[in-house]
Design brief:
Elements lengths: L12 E7 L3 H8 L2 H7 L6 E7 L6 E7 L5 E12 L3 E10 L2 E15 L2 E12 L5 H5 L1 H21 L4 E11 L3 H9 L1 H4 L9 E8 L6 E8 L4 E12 L3 E10 L2 E15 L2 E12 L8 H18 L1
Antiparallel strand pairs: 1-7, 2-3, 3-4, 4-5, 5-6, 6-7, 8-14, 9-10, 10-11, 11-12, 12-13, 13-14
């Protein structure tokens, strides 16, 4: 039997959230008092004061002000700091000098899908049962707090200069130009290969390949991130050339705008395809060659569909 007035240890909170910003930028939002004051509080609250001594053993103290003006202080220390990867800290909530509960927070940051996957885990010890309501409300509080972080990162990344990249891929397919061209222009044929791989769930698809026509593809990845492709066609020359521009979104963030040119040539083996893409990567998205790699993956799927 537990002792009377023994502390309560509810199950830990675990939340995952993807951000359209590189790990270094997301990490920086946790490491500065000025940044924390802009986002570290639930919806309806503000953060008028914060103290950060960003080193193991350093102090982290944040004041959250409720709409009625009441202030709640969370005070703790940093236990572990691995730049751009991991933060571990303690915190305690006190009212009138009495500690009501404590928490150990472990935050991990991992590059994923051109942005950052953040995992928040909090392990609680509750000394006042009346404050179990605050612990039980922590998931919603964290969600709205992280919404504010999204807004801050949007401001920070909007000031980031666009990055540019150009690549060309040549492939030879053992199918005639008419068949390869159809694989890019027929909705039924393109659906056989133009989509994500493992962990991808199709949400919507539309396609109208003609000058001025549009194409749309949206799907959700296992991480929960939704990717959206929207294109408009400018040149459609049967069995010879396609030219289109497209933008990509991850969730609500536009990560790139690109111009793609596909030239089709008759080849003794079938068809030689030359694909050239010029891209502008936006809002802090760091491609690092992943667009070229992803295009190569799709062309592999195309080759398989042509021989199926």
């Amino acid at each position: 039997m537990p002792e009377a007035n023994a502390p309560l240890t509810p199950p830990p909170l675990v939340l995952r959230r993807w951000f359209a910003a590189p790990p270094a930028l997301v990490f920086s939002a946790w490491s500065s008092a000025e940044h924390l004051k802009q986002w570290f509080s639930p919806a309806g609250f503000t953060t008028p004061h914060a103290e950060v001594d960003f080193r193991p053993g350093g102090v982290c103290a944040v004041c959250m002000r409720a709409p009625d003006g009441q202030e709640f202080w969370s005070r703790g220390t940093y236990l572990e700091i691995v730049p751009h990867e991991r933060l571990v800290s303690t915190s305690s909530m006190d009212v009138a000098g009495e500690v009501k509960f404590t928490a150990i927070s472990t935050i991990t940051f991992a590059a994923e899908a051109g942005g950052t996957q953040v995992v928040v885990q909090q392990d609680y010890t509750v000394f006042d049962p009346e404050f179990m309501a605050a612990v039980n409300g922590a998931p919603q509080g964290w969600r709205t707090t992280l919404d504010k972080l999204v807004a801050l990162l949007g401001t920070l990344t909007a000031a980031t200069p666009a990055e540019h990249a150009t690549f060309t891929i040549e492939r030879v397919f053992t199918a005639p130009p008419a068949q390869v061209f159809r694989a890019f222009t027929s909705p039924e044929a393109k659906a056989q290969w133009f989509a994500g791989g493992d962990g991808y769930t199709l949400l919507s698809r539309e396609m109208d390949v003609r000058p001025g026509g549009r194409e749309h593809l949206s799907g959700r990845w296992a991480s929960g991130v939704v990717s959206t492709f929207d294109a408009v066609y400018f040149d459609v020359t049967p069995e010879r050339r396609l030219v289109y521009a497209y933008d990509m979104h991850l969730d609500a963030c536009r990560i790139s705008v690109s111009l793609a040119t596909l030239d089709f040539f008759a080849d003794p083996a079938g068809t030689r395809l030359v694909l050239t893409e010029q891209g502008a990567f936006l809002n802090g998205y760091q491609d690092g060659g992943s667009r070229q790699h992803g295009t190569g993956f799709l062309l592999d799927r195309l080759a398989a569909s042509l021989t199926a």
